[in-house]
Amino acid sequence: GQQVMQIPQYQHVQEGEDFTTYCNSSTTLSNIQWYKQRPGGHPVFLIQLVKSGEVKKQKRLTFQFGEAKKNSSLHITATQTTDVGTYFCAGEGVIQGAQKLVFGQGTRLTINP
Amino acid sequence: DTGVSQNPRHKITKRGQNVTFRCDPISEHNRLYWYRQTLGQGPEFLTYFQNEAQLEKSRLLSDRFSAERPKGSFSTLEIQRTEQGDSAMYLCASSPGRAGRYNEQFFGPGTRLTVL
Predict the structure, then answer these.
(1) Among B2, B54, B49, B53, which Cα is nearest to B26's?
(2) B40, B56, B110 member nearest A98 (Cβ)
(3) Taking the CB of residue B76, how many other CB atoms lie within 10 A of it?
(4) Chain B residues with CB inside 8 Å of A99's CB?
(5) Contact between A2 and A94 (Cβ < 8 Å)
(6) Closest Cα partner for A37 from B36, B41, B9, B96?
(7) Do B55 and A90 touch (CB under 8 A)?
(8) Distance between CA B3 and CA B107 in Å, rounded?
(9) Residue A53 zone, left/alpha/beta (φ > 0; ψ -120 to 50; rest)
(10) Going residue by residue through chain A (113 aa), what tens digit of pLDDT does each one get?
């Protein structure tokens, strides 16, 4: 079945350093979504990428969708303590006629102030 | 607060008991999803509804799990004969589910189940 792998599992950085998490799918995706989950909270939608090679920015966050629509990345420039949390990618593909979102394991980001 | 509510927020039960959780999605959303999340893992898909129709159920879901969305609004997830391995956070999410719209999912706060 469809699998979504995410690396690294953990990342600890100094405040002000950059951070990147990578996502790879075993199958071609119709779109990919990114979510952030704060400690003790629930996943919150960040963005959706649909087009091959798409790049989107949200302030210090840059999201990319690969040309083959099988991988994606999230890059945070100059991290701040408010960026702490777990970042999940979620790939959406059509499986047996039904759209289904498959989440990666997440990358847990911790920051040393 | 995303507008998706779940009840109860916490449930402690003894092994072998049945439990039922409720999810109230955002009112105009057609799609409703159930996920299970354990510590250090991403949400694991369980099932989803388009209006009142259950369109997909994970193969990982045993027959002890059943979900309903009788009027296409709120949904319930029942686990029969609970086992310790069922202990997890059960998340509900809803999305608009309309063509041409983002299918972003709005998650509720979850129900944390502990099976003793």
Answers:
(1) B2
(2) B56
(3) 14
(4) 103
(5) no
(6) B41
(7) no
(8) 9
(9) left
(10) 668 999 999 999 999 999 999 999 988 998 999 999 999 999 999 999 999 999 999 999 999 999 999 999 999 999 999 999 999 999 987 655 556 788 999 999 999 98
In whole angstroms, give the CA distance from residue B51 to residue B72.
4
Task: Match 């998340």 to its residue by tokens.
Answer: B91
Reported as half-sphere exposure (CB side, CA atoms, 13 A), residue A1 has a value of: 12
CA-based torsion, A57, A23, A32, A106: positive or negative = negative
Q: Which of residues 37-96 of B touch A (CB under 8 A)?
A: 40-45, 48, 55-56, 59, 91, 93
A102: closest chain B residue by CA = B45
Q: Which residues of B touch A44 (CB under 8 A)?
A: 2, 107
Residue type, A54: E
Which among A10, A4, A1, A41 has a CA at the least distance from the CA of A107?
Answer: A10
Locate all alpha helices (DSSP H) within A5-110, ordered by sequence.
none
Say how far apart CA A19 and CA A11 lie, in whole Å: 8
- Which residue is associated with the tokens 């405040």? A15
Look at the block and give the residue holding tokens 């701040």.
Answer: A80
Amino acid residing at A47: I
The two three-digit tokens of residue A42, written as one number: 């629930």
Tell me the residue type at A74: L
Question: CA-to-CA distance for B75 and A89, rounded, in angstroms?
Answer: 26
Å between B44 CA and nearest CA of chain A: 7
Check if the beta carbon of residue B4 is closer than 8 Å to that of residue B107: yes
